From TrEMBL:
Residues 16-149 form the Knr4/Smi1-like domain. It comes from the Bacteria. It holds the Pfam family SMI1_KNR4. It comes from Streptomyces gardneri. This is Knr4/Smi1-like domain-containing protein.
Length: 178
């Protein structure tokens, strides 16, 4: 339902991208949300309304979920050695553990994550924090619902961007393969 709302909102036509999720989830040692996989299948990674970034699965693109995660995990581990944690009170998700995995952001620096727990599969709360804030907000909604509300619900504060009258569009983050 929410993925369809995003398709209707943007006027986008599904790309029908196939991904080897088994390989991705094996590296993570945790399943990803089904609606995220559906979002990726129809949109790929890219930008909604020239402002909201959605991380997909293309290691040659800026919006690659796994590349972003690997960098964040490496950085988080380096900072942790000095007793500093980038995602306080959370840590970046490590394979088989519990932590945050970023799946989106805005041009203003807002960040969107899932709180993953390999021991509690199927539960994917969305955690978000606004630019310049260390305060986390938790949303027990699907990825697609959160994204749809960010894009189209002006009352969805502090993350709703529709108040900026952005173009209801989507731009794919890399050129589709021929």
């Amino acid at each position: 339902m929410w993925v369809q709302k995003l398709l209707d909102f943007t006027g986008w036509e599904s790309l029908e991208i196939q991904e080897d999720w088994d390989r991705v989830e094996e590296e993570l040692q945790c399943a990803l949300p089904d609606d995220y996989k559906e979002l990726y299948r129809v949109f790929g990674g890219g930008v909604f309304g020239d402002a909201v970034f959605f991380y997909g699965r293309d290691e040659n693109a800026v919006f690659d979920l796994m590349t972003q995660w690997r960098v964040a995990l490496s950085t988080d581990r380096a900072y942790a050695e000095d007793g500093v944690f980038m995602m306080e009170p959370y840590s970046v998700y490590a394979p088989g553990g519990e932590g945050v995995l970023q799946w989106g952001a805005t041009e203003w620096g807002d960040q969107y994550f899932w709180l993953l727990d390999a021991k509690n599969p199927g539960v994917y709360p969305v955690l978000a924090r606004a630019e310049g804030s260390n305060e986390w907000k938790r949303y027990d909604v699907s990825t697609a619902e959160f994204l749809a509300r960010v894009l189209s619900d002006a009352e969805f504060q502090p993350f709703g961007v529709s108040r900026f009258s952005l173009d209801p569009s989507f731009a794919y983050g890399s050129e589709p393969e021929a």
